[in-house]
Automatic annotation (TrEMBL):
Keyword annotations from UniProtKB, A to Z: Cytoplasm, GTP-binding, Magnesium, Metal-binding, Nucleotide-binding
Keyword GTP-binding: yes
Gene3D superfamilies: 6.10.250.2860, GTPase HflX, N-terminal domain, P-loop containing nucleotide triphosphate hydrolases
Name under which the protein is recorded: GTPase HflX
SUBUNIT field: Monomer. Associates with the 50S ribosomal subunit.
Domain of life: Bacteria
Xref: Pfam families: GTP-bdg_M, GTP-bdg_N, MMR_HSR1
Region (Disordered): 413-438
Role summary: GTPase that associates with the 50S ribosomal subunit and may have a role during protein synthesis or ribosome biogenesis.
Name of the gene: hflX
Cited NCBIfam families: GTP_HflX (TIGR03156), PRK11058.1 (NF008280)
């Protein structure tokens, strides 16, 4: 049984369609929908006593096993509704938690889902012990039900603390990996977006990876990182993260904070949007809301409007903002149309992080030359007339400046506009300083 009530601040029909997709993604078979409209939720039953009676009759008629609400319910409302309909009642948060539990594959993912489930359960423990006696009175008059409830709460708190400690360890391990990437100045490009927008399809196309892809909400839950070579940029780390959704439970955001840190620390976010759905603007707003909640709203963003092949009057193209920077790329991750525009846009958005120019090195700078080969791309190389070297390099700027400092050189000493105008004067070079620095 599906229940959806239109409230003054509800999202309307699109939200109901998404709820139906959530239900089918969880593996449940919907048999009937109960729709209604209220000015405000009923404090006891959410839908009111009249609708509750109608719901109970439909449950008996269709022999439903579970009633799913497209809304958040309090513990009391769930308890009262279960008494009225005589079957299990689950709200939107509980449904999303169940889907996450099905999708989690890695040890970290299972820990994060369990933490969110236990935090959600902690406010609903009383529902599990209503069949036991819970006497009220004074000291010495507590019944076995109340004692059992207190024991359960204590075990729950201990389990939550244990999971949080293990996730803290995972967070530290991820921080070590990020520090290693920071030392190599490898840019991190993180894919974010609404669930089922095609992030994993795009990720597989860019990395030739094997991330699971399906037409389901939250098909990909565990984060995946791959090293790729982006034309015009060089080596980069591409991260595929969990998809977002409207009204994403706050507990899930908190539980998956370790995973979402890959987004917070990214050099560039690729915000993937399904351009073929009418509510694409609302989906973008929902993703931006979560990005703000996790502190990633200051990371540079390149919008990628996917599934352009599903539109009749659109083709792959690139849009720029008022400053002339790439803003939106329209492409198809399934067919590969528009990937050249995506690579161009990424290269332009990360251009300030890279040096792409001709250099003239003196004969003594062989060590610097080998370090430049290690640090990035030496796209062209020629021998100078005095035994020096002419190189066209594409290398991370921070690393480039550090290598020059180690060699005792300044950029203006080695920079040349073109081999045809390279000067014959040998720049001042200190091989001893370079040797000690290395």
């Amino acid at each position: 049984m599906l229940v959806h009530i239109d409230l003054p601040d509800a999202l309307g029909r699109e939200d109901l369609d998404e709820f139906y997709h959530l239900v089918t993604s969880s593996g449940v078979e919907p048999v009937v929908e109960l729709l209604g409209k209220r000015d405000r939720p009923d404090p006891a039953l959410f839908i009111g006593s009249g609708k509750a009676e109608e719901l109970a009759a439909l449950v008996r008629e269709h022999q439903a096993d579970v009633v799913l609400f497209n809304h958040g319910l309090s513990a009391g409302q769930e308890r009262n509704l279960e008494r009225a309909v005589k079957c299990r009642v689950l709200d939107r948060t509980g449904l999303i938690l169940d889907i996450f539990a099905q999708r989690a594959r890695t040890h970290e993912g299972r820990l994060q889902v369990e933490l969110a489930q236990l935090q959600h359960l902690s406010t609903r423990l009383v529902r599990g012990w209503t069949h036991l006696e819970r006497q009220k009175g004074g000291i010495g008059l507590r019944g076995p039900g109340e004692t059992q409830l207190e024991t359960d709460r204590r075990l729950l708190r201990e389990r939550i603390r244990s999971i949080q400690a293990r996730l803290d360890k995972v967070r530290k391990q991820r921080a070590q990996g990020r520090r290693a990437r920071d030392r190599s100045e490898t840019p991190l490009i993180s894919l974010v977006g609404y669930t089922n927008a095609g992030k994993s399809t795009l990720f597989n196309a860019l990395t030739t990876g094997d991330v699971y892809v399906a037409d389901k909400l939250f098909a990909t839950l565990d984060p995946t990182l791959r090293k790729v070579r982006v034309p015009g940029v060089g080596p980069a780390i591409l991260a595929d993260t969990v998809g977002f959704i409207r009204h994403l439970p706050h507990r899930l955001v908190q539980a998956f904070r370790a995973t979402l840190e890959e987004t917070v620390n990214a050099s560039l976010l690729l915000h993937v949007t399904d351009s073929s759905v009418e509510e694409s603007d609302a989906n973008v707003a929902a993703v931006n809301e979560v990005l703000e909640e996790i502190g990633a709203d200051t990371v540079p963003v390149l919008h990628v409007y996917n599934k352009v092949d599903a539109l009749e009057d659109a083709s792959p193209h690139l849009e720029r903002d008022e400053q002339g920077l790439p803003w939106r790329v329209w492409l198809s991750a399934r067919t590969g149309e528009g990937f050249d525009l995506l690579h161009q846009a990424i290269a332009e958005r990360l251009a300030d992080r890279w040096v792409d120019r001709w250099l003239r090195l003196p004969p003594e700078a062989g060590r610097l030359r080998s370090r430049l080969h290690e640090a990035g791309e030496v796209r062209e190389e020629q021998a100078a007339t005095d035994g020096g070297m002419l190189l066209r390099v594409h290398v991370n700027r921070v690393h480039f400046e550090r290598l020059l400092r180690e060699a005792g050189l300044r950029e203006e000493q080695v920079r040349v506009p073109d081999p045809s105008v390279a000067e014959t004067d040998t720049p001042s070079y200190n091989p001893e300083r370079s040797h000690r620095a290395g």
